[in-house]
Structures are given as structure tokens and as C-alpha cells.
Automatic annotation (TrEMBL):
InterPro entries: MlrC_C
Every Microcystin LR degradation protein MlrC C-terminal domain range: 3-110
Protein name: Microcystin LR degradation protein MlrC-like protein
Organism of origin: Duganella vulcania
Length: 135
């Protein structure tokens, strides 16, 4: 998501009702209208339904051969691993700002008791006061 970009692109493939296997390879998750384009030698997949990438099918259904790529980038939090780990020599995470940041120390929590692991060093924290229990 974001602001539109003005680019010169070659349209490689258009699919009106593209989908990908859901989590665990079950069912089909709609991607909607999906287009593969090439901009400055980089193949890009665009789709009309906001959806995480679970499966290489997001690329292969649009004619993109992942085995021919040195680098594949997906917009997904963690769900892509099952489908892409068998193809990847390595996985590198890229963090972005927002509520789904993997850097939990940057999230402005409002209603948590401190200290709390993993945000705080519990070895340095004072233990909470003990509550008395009835005999």
C-alpha cells in the first residue's frame, strides 16, 4: 500500500480471479485482479485484494519462475515460511513501521504491567510484591 508511483512498466500477465492456496495449503485465498509487471528489470506482482503472501503460487500463477530469481521479496509477516523455505537459501526479515512491527519494543503499549519480558530485563527488575493468602 502507499501512494501511486509513476513508472514505465511492461505488463507480463493479467489474471482476473487469481488465488493462492490458504494456510496449510488448504482452500484458496482470493487475490482478485492480479497483474505481473516488469519495472527496470524487476518483476512485480500487484493484486486488488489486500492479502498476505502464503504461497509461491502468487508468482507462478502469473508466469514468474522463482527458480530463475536471485532474490524474491514477499509482503507477509510470517505465514510465507512454509511455502518459501524449501525454495530459499536464506530468509531476511525487513521491518516496517506500524502496528505489525516485529520490533515489539517500538510499539506504544498503554495497558501493560511493567516489567514484562521480553521488553524489560527481568534479571534487573524488582519482583512484584507478594499477596498474602489466607491460611
Amino acid at each position: 500500500s502507499g501512494l501511486p508511483l509513476d513508472v514505465r512498466a511492461e505488463v507480463l500477465c493479467v489474471r482476473r480471479d487469481a488465488c493462492q492456496p490458504g494456510l496449510g495449503g488448504k482452500g484458496g485465498d482470493a487475490l482478485g485482479l492480479a497483474v505481473a509487471i516488469r519495472v527496470a528489470g524487476i518483476d512485480i506482482v500487484l493484486n486488488s485484494v489486500r492479502q498476505q503472501v502464503f504461497s509461491p503460487a502468487c508468482f507462478t500463477e502469473l508466469g514468474i519462475d522463482l527458480a530463475a530469481k536471485r532474490l524474491v521479496v514477499v509482503k507477509s509477516t510470517q505465514h510465507f515460511r512454509a511455502g518459501f523455505d524449501p525454495l530459499a537459501a536464506a530468509t531476511v526479515y525487513c521491518d516496517t513501521p506500524g502496528s505489525l512491527s516485529a520490533r515489539i519494543d517500538t510499539i506504544p503499549y498503554q495497558f501493560i504491567r511493567r516489567p514484562i519480558w521480553p521488553l524489560d530485563d527481568l534479571d534487573q527488575a524488582s519482583p512484584p510484591p507478594q499477596q498474602e493468602t489466607a491460611p
